[in-house]
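For the sake of transparency, this paper describes our internal protein records without simplification. An entry from our holdings is shown next, in its original layout:
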Amino acid sequence: MAKGKDIHVVPKGPGKWQVKPEGGQPLSDHRTQQAAIDKGRPIARRNESELVIHRPDGEIRDADSHGHDPRKSKG
């Protein structure tokens, strides 16, 4: 997987979650959002990218930077 590609934790359906790279095919399916986050975080670290966590309705809930912070400010 290419470095810098954001990794998304997205809803797949009622009570199901997927980990997938931005614009790519799903990498894994999970029964809980936390399980998907736990799987996606090390992938984002390896890729030096963002882990983007979505809400059940698909909106972005949170994003964690792992080496590729698009913001110029410190912190």
Summary: The first strand starts at residue 7 and ends at 13. Residues 25 and 33 are 18 Å apart (CA to CA).
